[in-house]
């Protein structure tokens, strides 16, 4: 067995097939071993991957060889179920069954799981012996959960790594918000058609823009509420729990003292005036006006918002004449032509606050009160911008629901190069459901945050018997549901093209701020919400998305996407025609660099490659092969 292990290791070194895995990725480990790769196992005590001195390796090898023999000729029982395969075994693609609650989290939590996983492996496994034999070898392939865990002197010597450095511009909420603001430089696409309005509270200019947006949205919402039928009037909203120091969600508070008193008579007229001024700004009729902002009027906004809260959240009724009703309908119709997000706004002016760099739904707060947002922003002014950074985003009040339950979509994609930009889209994805029926008048996390880490707290709750207990659907199940609704075409004609376009827009905007490294690649997880018109709305993009199976569906899909990722980045290098599973080319930039692009004719705006069919090579729409025309001037 020792001789066989030596021969296998020598072959792997010659063919550059030494790998290392840091994190809970048993599928990656099994698939690479089945390809003939040898693992250099990471130290269990020190989590950093460091190069072992040669004499240490020899001592370990001699010690290991002395303990060889009959023990190595048997398959060693695996504490996680089954037996560890021998050297020549081709391991089946199957994710281990979930052991308790394993969800996407901080790297520290994953490191603890990794230690537990590695410590449970039997020391007499043949793979342990081969790992000792390659301890002085630099891995050719590294799959890690965090680049910071890897020795920075060794990292540049590793040929292929599954992570890119400096992904804040794409994978933090603040960074994505900032990057997408540069979209007009890349595509003639309106950001508001796929990304809910978002502001960084740490910047005074954006905080002021949010205040104006909040006020304008309140005025529009008031017009919608005025047109509602009496039977559609909102009831009171739950009051937040006073016991919790930092409530996860914030609910509007009902004020019973003024519940029966009518609002002041000018409330509706003021809302109409503000909306008319806003329309003038949108239609560029405000160029010569002294006060271009519709919010800088003589309206007392504090009083206006107090009365709006009463109408929206406490059930105070508005009475309007026939002429006012027609005015409201006309203004809203004209606003709908100008504002792509009017359909998802709803009537309650709900906003969602998110910590910039946290995951799993931690720290998220929903609120309908401007003063609550500003109070939170004020609490962060004394801290470093990198320590306390929040974004506030318009909450989608009119999402598509399934059996009255909110859901979102986790969609995978891979970037194999940033220069030239090359993006691959995964055709399979999954849906994550909440645990209670959707309601805008009960804002607890069980109804509004689809993160698995949040919903596992409500394991005993079941929103609808037609949904599975693990609250996960595959995209195939979703397509069957759309067919039952009579919208089988929505998936391929609306949802998938919309997700592709949003992903491409995001990565193109962030590319110049991401650390590019030849030989690296990364699997990302984008989260989307679907509107009632089936349009997808990008919420965020996650680096290093969880591969831990939380359901029957994710157990299968997570294993498949890891298998197909290795096909894409490893097998395809040696065989460009090999199968890459469910991946398809979304975008490949041509003409990057000097002398690589053919001459360009006078250019018209280029549509990005986001069709459901196979992608074709596209050109970047700005900054390439710019041509200067003119005539020479003779000296006088």
UniProtKB/TrEMBL annotation:
InterPro entries: TTL/TTLL_fam, TTLL_monoglycylase
Gene Ontology CC terms, in alphabetical order: axoneme; microtubule cytoskeleton
Protein's UniProt name: TTLL3 monoglycylase
Pfam families reported for this sequence: TTL (PF03133)
Regions annotated as coiled coil: 318-345
GO molecular function, one term: protein-glycine ligase activity, initiating
GO BP annotations, alphabetical order: cilium assembly; cilium movement
Feature: compositional bias, Basic and acidic residues: 55-73
Major localization listed first in the record, in broad terms: cytoplasm
